[in-house]
Amino acid sequence: MTKTTNKKIKLKLKAGDLVRVMRGRSKGKEGKIILIDIEKQRAIVEGVNLIRKHEKPNAKNPQGGIVEKEAPIHISNLMILVNGKPSRVGRRLNAETGKIEKYAKKTNETLK
How far out from the chain centre does Cα 110 lie? Predict the structure, then answer.
């Protein structure tokens, strides 16, 4: 039996961010985040961590065969890219708007 918690997890990455893989077999590769699974803390990055999957023939793929697709990778292995260089991400309160914003700790610049 698995434990479930109602604790809300705040991730510092979001879909659309440009990231670099820092660990694992895809180390050094860069790509854009397509999808994030918040509960499992995993992300699917475009062109990174590719696997080969055998598919039966179906309506979408009548021939079937071996298909290459991206597999999820843990977010702890990813770093956001700022001006082409990896940086840690922080969160701070914007004094003007009163909202929390993301910023790059290396360059101290605000991220969208």
Answer: 19
Contact 78, 70 (CB under 8 A): no
Answering whether pTM is above 0.90, one says no
DSSP state of 6: -
- In this prediction, residue 1 carries a pLDDT of 56
Domain boundaries, the chain: 18-111
Instruction: Using the predicted structure, report yes or no on whether residue 4 has a pLDDT greater than 70.
Output: no
User: Of 107, 83, 82, 102, which Cα lies nearest the Cα of 91?
Assistant: 102
Listed in sequence order, the residues at least 6 apart from 99 whose beta carbon sits closer than 8 Å to its beta carbon are 93
- What's the token pair of residue 19? 């990231």
Class of domain 18-111: mainly beta
Closest residue by Cα to residue 66 from 75, 81, 55, 74 = 55
Strand order in the sheet with 73-74: 73-74, 42-45, 30-37, 18-21, 78-82, 85-87
Quick count: other Cβ atoms within 10 Å of Cβ 1?
Answer: 3
